[in-house]
């Protein structure tokens, strides 16, 4: 028997309610992150937007949180972190920065 109206579960347009984040939630989160990628430094703006567009869906929940944490930093600090001139305090952030650097090196 297929899941549906009579299976005792509430169903929304994306499947059972409470089964995980909906596509709408994920798209809203992605828009929010892309907005945070908008920077005063054009170089950061372009790099971060390209990275998020290409790689965001493949990041873990820890990496999502680390990315948000990084994006809350001031442009000069974030630039030094991305360029590897300053180490991140958090190992997940440092790993994510390495991934951003690797992505950037393949875009040239």
Describe the protein in words:
- The protein is mainly alpha-helical.
- The chain has a domain at 41-108: Orthogonal Bundle (DNA polymerase, domain 1).
- It has five helices and two strands, in the order ββααααα.
- It has helices at 23-36, 42-55, 61-71, 75-82, 91-106, and strands at residues 11-12, 15-16.
- A two-stranded antiparallel ribbon has the order 1-2.
- A hairpin with a 2-residue loop joins strand 1 (11-12) and strand 2.
Question: Summary?
Answer:
The chain is mostly helical and about 110 residues long.
Structural class, by secondary structure, is mainly alpha
In the CATH hierarchy, the architecture of the domain at 41-108 is: Orthogonal Bundle
What proportion of the residues is helical, as a percent range?
Answer: 55-70%
The termini sit apart by: 53 Å
* CATH homologous superfamily title of the domain at 41-108: Flavinator of succinate dehydrogenase
Low-confidence stretches: 1-17
Q: For this entry, what is the oligomeric state of its chains?
A: single chain
Say how many strands there are: 2
- Overall pLDDT, averaged? 84
Biggest pleated-sheet summary: 2 strands, antiparallel
What's the total helix number?
5
**Taking strands numbered 1, 2, ... along the chain, how are they ordered across the largest sheet?**
1-2
CATH class of the domain at 41-108: Mainly Alpha
**How much β-strand is present in the residues?**
under 5%
Any idea what the shape is?
A: globular
């Amino acid at each position: 028997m297929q899941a549906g109206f009579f299976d005792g579960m509430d169903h929304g347009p994306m499947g059972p309610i409470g089964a995980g984040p909906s596509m709408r939630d994920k798209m809203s989160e992605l828009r929010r992150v892309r907005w945070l990628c908008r920077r005063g430094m054009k170089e950061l703006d372009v790099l971060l937007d390209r990275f998020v567009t290409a790689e965001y869906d493949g990041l873990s929940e820890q990496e999502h949180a680390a990315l948000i944490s990084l994006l809350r930093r001031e442009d000069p600090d974030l630039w030094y972190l991305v360029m590897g001139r300053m180490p991140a305090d958090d190992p997940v952030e440092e790993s994510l920065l390495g991934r951003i650097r690797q992505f950037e090196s393949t875009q040239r």
